[in-house]
Amino acid sequence: MNESLLEMVSSFDIHFSLGFIVFLRVAALTALLPAFGERSVSVRIKLVLALAFTIIVAPTVESRIPQIEFFHLPTVALSETLYGFLLGIGVRLFILSLQTAGTIAAQSTSLSQILGGASIEPVPAIGFILVISAICLAVTAKLHVKVAELIILSYDFFPIEVFASGSGVAEWGLNQTRRAFSLAFTLSAPFLILSVLYNLALGAINKAMPQLMVAFVGAPVITMGGLFLLCLTAPIMLAVWIDILNSYLHNPMLKTP
Hints:
The chain has about 260 residues and is an all-alpha fold. The chain is about 75% helix and about 0% strand.
């Protein structure tokens, strides 16, 4: 009886320590995920989601997690939380790239002040529409499954009790930031081209007819043109965005060209 009780207690301690270590990485990542980690989502729901991911991931990575001595626990807790934040920031940068693309597009088409305060984070209307659409698309495309796969994969390049080098983390961060800004400018390129053509046409008209108030004539044109261009390009923009997001989730350590 006593031996069985001791075995149960020992098994509980092993599984509890395993779940706790996995939870540290999962919770930090979940706090920054699109849809699951939004500021509008309750902290209780985030906690439940983190526990759900932990229950899914822990049995899969059990063989990759060694026994942790008690005096090594603070170091493991710090490294696991750091790795979770790094992975989460990498995913979050894709949302920030859409917000940046929306801001560039809105400034180019005089739509920066419409519905600017509709979201928790004040963004122009185009950025708000793109972010909401992208979140819906990502969730529909089984974001939760891909995130679970990402967490399991992360134990290959972020093993337990091994601190990543500062230079490696810095290089990885710069690479992800470069990809985010490159994606933002790529997605907003049609609106920049439209803005350049509009301003060239407006300048030519103003030169030909100085007495005409071209600003009053051109403002509705650029606004309607921006909305029309958004309707045409939004599906393509979101398709490009989800493809790049999926490539990151499958291999977050891949360097961008």
